[in-house]
Amino acid sequence: MSDHDEGPDPAHRRPPGVSDTTVEALGALSKALETTERARGHLYSFHQLTGTADFELDRAVELLRAAGHGAWAEKVQRDILGRNVIPGHWTFQVVEAYDATYYEPFKSLEAAARQELADGRNHLYEARLKEERRTGGHPDHTALPEPPAAP
């Protein structure tokens, strides 16, 4: 058995005294944060898509005018172009409020819990799952990456 088949690596080994339940709890907390990361990505998609739509309205206004529909061009420009998405907010402000109110406190809390309860180690739950599920000695189930080749 080679060294890269013994694992997990030190950064993913459970510190002494950390229970299975603590590892599972930290895994659940991290999974919730990962889901929040995905939600935040969708919020950025909302931000960028809404901004893109707003700029596309410039073309709609131009074409409505060119087609002789000046009143409609004015209505689109006045009522929709540059409009707040919620009272007083453009999308960048929604993103900033989400980050300050929810995302950053959640991210800080998760990191503090890992620091206090598991010496700051990340992915202990996943590392445990990997050890339970891999086939020892199989070349595609190694615990660690191959060390870099010597020059």
- Rg result: 26 Å
Shape: elongated
Average pLDDT works out at 93
**DSSP strand content:** under 5%
Query: Any low-confidence stretches, pLDDT <50, length ≥5?
Result: none
What is the structural class?
mainly alpha
How many beta-strand elements?
Answer: 0
The proportion of residues forming helix, as a percent range, comes to 55-70%
Q: How many DSSP H or I helices?
A: 4
Main sheet characteristics: none
Order of helices and strands: HHHH
Distance between the termini: 24 Å
Give an account of the 3D structure.
- With 151 residues, the chain is mainly alpha-helical.
- The protein has helices at residues 20-66, 70-79, 91-118, 124-133.
- α1 packs antiparallel against α2 and α1 (20-66) runs antiparallel to α3.
Which key phrases capture this entry?
63% helix; 4 helices; mainly alpha; 0% strand; 151 residues
Task: Give the helix/strand layout.
Layout: H1 20-66, H2 70-79, H3 91-118, H4 124-133
In short:
With about 150 residues, this protein is mostly helical.
